[in-house]
Structure formats: C-alpha cells, structure tokens
C-alpha cells in the first residue's frame, strides 16, 4: 500500500503544519471516496500526536507508540467502524462513555468514527454535545464517503476536509505492484481509486466475466446489431446483482466509449488494451461515439432514480443503436 504521505502528500503536509502550529481543531470530517486515504490520515495524525521519536515533524512509524496505534492497541486512540451495514448503537454508546472519561488535563485522546454516515440519526445526535463542548485534548475524526448523509448539525460543527482522488498514475502503479495485469490495471484504475478493492476486483472471476459480457455488448453495438437489445436480458442483467455492479457496468461502457472516441481522433490508446470490440467501435464516426458516450453518461445519472436497471440499459442501447444508424 502507498504510504499516506504519498497517497495524500498535500493533506499530510497541511496537517504536519497545523499540528506544528498547534492549530488542530477538535472535530474533523474526512470526506472522500473509498481508497483516498481518510482512515490512514486519521491514523497518521494519531501517531503524530503520540510518537516519541518524531522525524522532522512526522511520526516515525517505528516507535512503540506508533506501532501500538497501527495495531489498534492504544487505549487513547479509539476507532469505531460499521459492523456490517451499520454502526451499532452499542458501539457508539461505548465510545461516548470513553469520551466522557477524557481527562480535564488535556491529555490527548483521539476518537475516530469510520463511515460515520452509517450511524443512526439518534446516535449521531447523541454525539453532538461532544462536538459542541469537546474536552481539552479531545480530537474527533469522522470519515465518510457520503458526507451529505451526515446531519447538518454535525457538518456545521466540524471542519470538513475533502480528500481528492489520488493521481491515476499512482493508482495504476499500486495496482501493478499488487499483481494486477497491465491488461486490467488501466480499466480498473478508471473505475476505482481504492487499491485493495481494485486488486480484489482483478482477481474476481465474476468481474472478468462481466467485463467480457460488456465488451460483447460493445461489439454488437459497434455493428449496429439489434441483438444488442435481447443480449441485455440474456447476458448482462444476470451478471449484475447490486447497485455497485450496475454502476460498474455503466462505468465500463463509458470507459470503452471514451477510449473509442479518443482513438477515433487518432490518439494513443488511453486506458484499455486492444480488443475486437474497441477496434470495431473506433471505426464509428467521432460524432456517433460522442453521442453514445453522452447517452451512457446520462444513464449513469439515472442510476439512483427508480428506473429498473434492465429498462435503463435497454433504453440506453436503443438510443445508441438509433444514433449509430443515423
Ligand atoms: Zn513514532
């Protein structure tokens, strides 16, 4: 895994400066996609506060304190994370108990709530008093991939730090270092910046099956073949169970079309390795490809509405077929 100093170099430097200037706030919300290093930075900050062997204002990562935090064994650094789909009320209750015990002397204590949007509204509400009147030395960090799902009252009482997606080059290099083939690394880096998630995806047979089916669909679309329509039901929808996978199908379609568009302008291959589908698609006119790409992106926007996935995809394919016949 990339070190946080590499993954989020700027943010790490900012916090190094903030802590050096003794300007650390008492409550933060770390917001950003999975894989952007939110939890790692929270841990880095905790290590920075406890490290006994600071190196140029950075935690050493080697001393007993740094190691204890890395292994989750420092009683003054408490982390709560979801158990399954939600953060259990009991876990929040325990955390609050610990928070109340924080000393008045201002001895540092760090409380990290990962995926904080998975707390119940009442649990979130019950934490408010700590946001309003934090005890000296108390640092609360909430991480979230969906900050809009946090209560406005919580959002307004914490400092929000937005985590940018790591550079594509870095994600690519990390995927390659994790054993992902060149063949898949570009595509996966186009779908996610979550490196462990991406490595798992590359090893997932269902994912490679799905990818094959999507490229099959692209081949049919490239030929303007109306069989693309029934193919959705027989070959695509069956391979897709959850919302994440639905999104993935549209992401891959989008990648294939933007790659084909880029190639139709004579540019070098971008993220995808050569495939028959891509070669065939690249023969279409730039206008046709741009139209298809717009249709796919529009479809992605509808994903969270109440339209059934099959209907959405069918509509999308019909529009692309119509566009390429024009
Ligand atoms: Zn250390």
Describe the protein in words.
The protein has 326 residues and is of the alpha/beta class. It has 2 domains: 4-162, Rossmann fold (3-Layer(aba) Sandwich), CATH 3.40.50; 204-325, Zinc Finger, Delta Prime, domain 3 (Up-down Bundle), CATH 1.20.272. It has helices spanning 4-7, 9-20, 38-50, 64-70, 89-100, 121-132, 152-155, 168-177, 182-191, 195-203, 205-223, 228-236, 243-264, 276-281, 286-301, 309-325; strands at 27-31, 77-80, 109-113, 138-144, 159-162. The N and C termini lie far apart (48 Å). The model has no long low-confidence stretch (mean pLDDT 90). Residues 51-53, 59-60, 62-63, 65-66 line the site of zinc ion.
Classification by helices and strands: alpha/beta
Tally of strands = 5
Question: What portion of the residues fall into strands of 2 or more residues?
Answer: 5-15%
Question: How can the largest sheet be summarized?
Answer: 5 strands, parallel
Query: How are helices and strands ordered from N to C?
Result: HHEHHEHEHEHEHHHHHHHHH
> What's the overall average pLDDT, rounded?
90
User: In percent, how helical is the residue content?
Assistant: 55-70%
CATH homologous superfamily label of the largest domain: P-loop containing nucleotide triphosphate hydrolases
Give, in spatial order, the strands making up the sheet with the most strands.
2-3-4-1-5
**CATH topology descriptor of the largest domain:** Rossmann fold
Low-confidence stretches: none
CATH class of the largest domain: Alpha Beta
Radius of gyration equals 24 Å
Architecture per CATH nomenclature, i.e. the level-2 architecture of the largest domain: 3-Layer(aba) Sandwich
Distance between the termini: 48 Å
């Amino acid at each position: 895994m990339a070190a946080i100093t590499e993954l989020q170099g700027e943010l790490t430097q900012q916090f190094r400066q903030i802590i050096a200037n003794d300007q650390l706030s008492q409550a933060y919300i770390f917001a950003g996609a999975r894989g952007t290093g939110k939890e790692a930075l929270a841990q880095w900050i905790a290590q920075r506060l406890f490290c006994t062997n600071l190196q140029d204002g950075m935690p050493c990562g080697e001393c007993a304190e740094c190691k204890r935090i890395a292994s989750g064994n420092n009683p003054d650094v408490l982390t709560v994370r979801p158990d399954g789909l939600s953060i259990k009320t009991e876990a929040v209750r325990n955390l609050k108990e610990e928070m109340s015990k924080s000393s008045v002397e201002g001895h540092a204590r760090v409380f990290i709530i990962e995926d904080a949007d998975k707390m119940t509204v009442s649990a979130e509400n019950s934490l408010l008093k700590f946001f309003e009147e934090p005890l000296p030395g108390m640092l609360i960090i909430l991480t979230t991939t969906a900050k809009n799902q946090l209560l406005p009252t919580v959002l307004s009482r914490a400092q929000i730090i937005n985590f940018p997606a790591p550079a594509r080059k870095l994600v690519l290099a990390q995927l390659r270092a994790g054993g992902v083939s060149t063949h898949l690394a570009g595509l996966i880096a186009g779908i996610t910046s979550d490196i462990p998630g991406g490595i798992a995806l590359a090893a997932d047979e269902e994912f490679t099956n799905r990818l094959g089916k999507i490229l099959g669909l692209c081949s049919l679309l490239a030929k303007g073949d109306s069989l693309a329509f029934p193919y959705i039901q027989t070959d695509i929808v069956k391979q897709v169970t959850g919302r994440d996978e639905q999104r993935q199908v549209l992401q891959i379609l989008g990648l294939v079309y933007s790659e084909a568009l880029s190639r139709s302008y004579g540019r070098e291959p971008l993220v995808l390795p050569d495939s028959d589908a891509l070669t065939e698609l690249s023969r279409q006119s730039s206008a046709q490809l741009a139209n298809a790409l717009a249709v796919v992106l529009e479809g992605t926007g509808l994903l969270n509405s109440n339209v059934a996935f099959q209907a959405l995809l069918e509509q999308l394919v019909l529009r692309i077929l119509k566009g390429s016949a024009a």
